[in-house]
Every structure is written in C-alpha cells, then in structure tokens.
Amino acid sequence: MSTLQVKIWRGTESGQFQAYEVPRLKSQSVLDVVTYVQRQLDPSLAYRFACRVGMCGSCAMKVNGKARWTCRTHVANVAINDALEIAPLGNLPVIRDLVTDMAPFFDKMAQARSHFKGARTRAHDFERVMPDSPKRKQADAAIECIGCGVCYSSCDVVTWNPAYLGPAALNRAWTLVNDVRDISNAQRLAAVAGDAGCHACHTHMSCTERCPKHLAPTAGIAGLKRAVAAAALKGEI
Ligand code: SF4
Ligand code: SF4
Ligand code: FES
Predict the structure, then answer these.
(1) What's the half-sphere exposure (Cβ side, CA atoms, 13 Å) at 219?
(2) Residue nearest atom 1 of ligand 3, based on CA coordinates
C-alpha cells in the first residue's frame, strides 16, 4: 500500500510540525487524512469539522501553504510528491493544533453590520423581490458564503492591518446593501467606510482566487466603495 508523508502543526502560536505516515486511499480528502491521524495515530490532535460536505465552513486549514476547505479538497489535487503539510488558518489566533479562534472573524462580521434589519412584522404580507431584478442578482452572487475564513486567512491586508474588516465581512455587507428589504443601509455603509473598511482593500484578489464557493469578495468590496461614495455625496453618511 502506498503512503502519504504528512506534517501537521502541533502546538499554539509556538509549536512545530510533527510527521505522520498515512495510508494513501482512493478519493481521499485532506480531512480524511487529518481524521485518520487523530483516530489511528494520535488522539490528542485537535481539529474541527462538522458537515463533511462543504456546507458548514468549519474544516478550513492551510494545506501546503494555501487555505482550503479540507472536506472537499482531494489529496490527489494538492499532494506534492505524496506529501502534505497541514497547518491552522492564518490571520487568526491558534487555540491548539489545527483549531483557530474564529472570534475576530465573526466580530468583524458584526462590526460590518452583517445582520438583516427589516421593517415588516408578522402582521405584514411577505415582501416580494423579483428574481431578475438587478439588486437581487447582485445579492445572489454574493450570498452563498459559508463563513469558512479561507478568504480572511488569505488576505495580506488583514495580516498588515489586523483591524481591517476583511473580505468575508465586507462581502456580507455588500449582500445586505443589495437587499431591498433592509432598512439599515446608511448605518451599514458608515460602518464599512472607515479606515479599516472597504477602502483598505488593495484589490489583491487572493480572497476571490481562494474562496471555495467561487464568490468574488473583491467585486463586492468595489461595489461597497461605489455605494459609500454615492451615499457620502448625497449626505446620507
Ligand atoms: S481583494 Fe481585498 S479583501 Fe480580497 S484578499 Fe485582496 S486586499 Fe484582501
Ligand atoms: S467569502 Fe468564500 S472564502 Fe470567504 S468566508 Fe465566505 S465562503 Fe469562505
Ligand atoms: S466540514 Fe463542513 S465545510 Fe468542510
């Protein structure tokens, strides 16, 4: 049976890679490899996953230097000479081994006002938004975010400026800016207009290149820049 040479980060911010030998299987995902190590070789290994089908966003790690969702990443597509190096996501504190503290990531979602605020109550009828309306199409294009943090981990501006809201929070803000039912867009645009908001993006595109859901946060951030400018000209923010 052929084997994979796997190095996995052990420790917290300080630590080292530890080497393991894992049987090579057909159709094996990187998450399968990590799970084999934890179940068969070293039960003290800490890592995180839930759905295993690309929905929950909890299994993201760095694989051979690039952030990825590991449950949908086939070993055959990323192994180099039958070797893998698996590390925790970047730009986030490491709790232990492959587990990062996602609190800064979700705190920034809150700072960007990533929650919906509507005006209707249970007493109202549903509001209808036409599927082919331009705003609905723009919201749809950005809505499938699973909160995996791959883009956040891949963004150099987050590394340089830890206060930067980052691609996922701004992508979510853009989704809501295009939601015609939402009534808090002036506050949302004000929240993303500051020094750590959309204008800090250097359009490096790493987020868009790496997003496993094929979203384009860079395009959404460009849309936010235009929306912020328009709101400022109208005196709304
Ligand atoms: S496009 Fe902007 S948000 Fe995306 S990785 Fe580059 S700097 Fe970060
Ligand atoms: S925008 Fe893409 S990479 Fe970023 S958190 Fe959402 S799904 Fe993950
Ligand atoms: S385990 Fe849910 S997205 Fe990978």
Answers:
(1) 11
(2) 52
